[in-house]
Amino acid sequence: MKRLIVAAGGGGDAVAAAMLHAALYGDEDQAVILTYAWDRLLIDPVPGPRGPDNFTGLQQLTPTVWAVPAEARPIAPAGSTLPRLAAELPHTFALIDPHHGAEGITRQLEELVSHFSPESIDLLDVGGDILARGDEPTLKSPLADAVTLAACCQVKAPIRLLVAGPGLDGELPHDQLRGTLGPLVHTFSAKDVEPISSVLEWHPSEATGMLAATARGVRGTCEMRDAGLPVPLTDEGPTVHEVDLDDALSRNQLARAITATTTLDEVEAHSREICGYSEIDYERNKAAWLKDQPPVQLDPQAVLSQLDQFEAEARNRGVTHTTFRRITEALNLNGSLREDLRQLLIGSHPERYDAPLWRITATGTSNQGELRA
User: Fold this and answer.
1) In Å, what is the CA distance from 293 to each residue of 80, 287, 289?
2) What is the pLDDT of residues 312-347, one digit of tens each?
């Protein structure tokens, strides 16, 4: 193993890390990608990140670092995308365990550095919310990035902070990030997306999905998340910039406050104090609400009719694209139906699939012809 890549926020950052490795390092020895097992509630109904105790079949790499191979399984009711990522991608996916705070992740990193002696260590964040101060009104999920940043700043090894797709996570607009971004390291192309193209067909990450779409040349405005955040898809979308690690720490109030934490509870307490909330609290509340929702079947004709109304309103908002997560939530469908919805729409109108986004055209869906078999 020559490369260690830390996926700052887990989830889609781990997928982007695989794309980054292929783009920057080619076909050399595959990377260890250190990432959270922290998925959206439609994948993992248990709030917060998973630790090693939540899996079977892990492989121990160092005293505190465990790899998640393809045969690993989350222990019910937990869920995880990591075993499937390990099955489809050639890299080793190692588990960030935030339950021992920033000090615990620092220890994990130091063990990996000592064990593997990697030629390079990259800390990758898609979108750039790792550069947040903590008080921005658009910020939604600062906790994971802040803990990895705090840990990386304490490791006695050179670590390069990279921000891919500035603004694409819908948390900090690109205009706010522009002054903090350092040199351009790479601009992703359609060819760079090829190694992860199969993953994009099922992985729920919206930010990495938009990163891939912009690399493939998609431009416009994409609406994402349950709140319908509009995200510009511009020529800046597929770029990767280096950012000084110490500068990022000096900006990130939460990261500075949690450098000495030894439990996740401590990290959450600091997040509530500095940012006004903990995103795990949001997940707890949403999980409790989802538990009481009755199961819903997908009615294709009703869905396409509802989609026409949603798209008409979206066009009036200047939206050109959206994510399947956004459509699922806008139509008040259970998150478990996201993949069924995706198959329905792509099967019905494949020409409108700007992989992995859905393109909103000047006319509706249900009135464009019969469903294809």
Assistant:
1) 22, 10, 7
2) 999 999 999 999 999 998 998 888 889 999 999 999
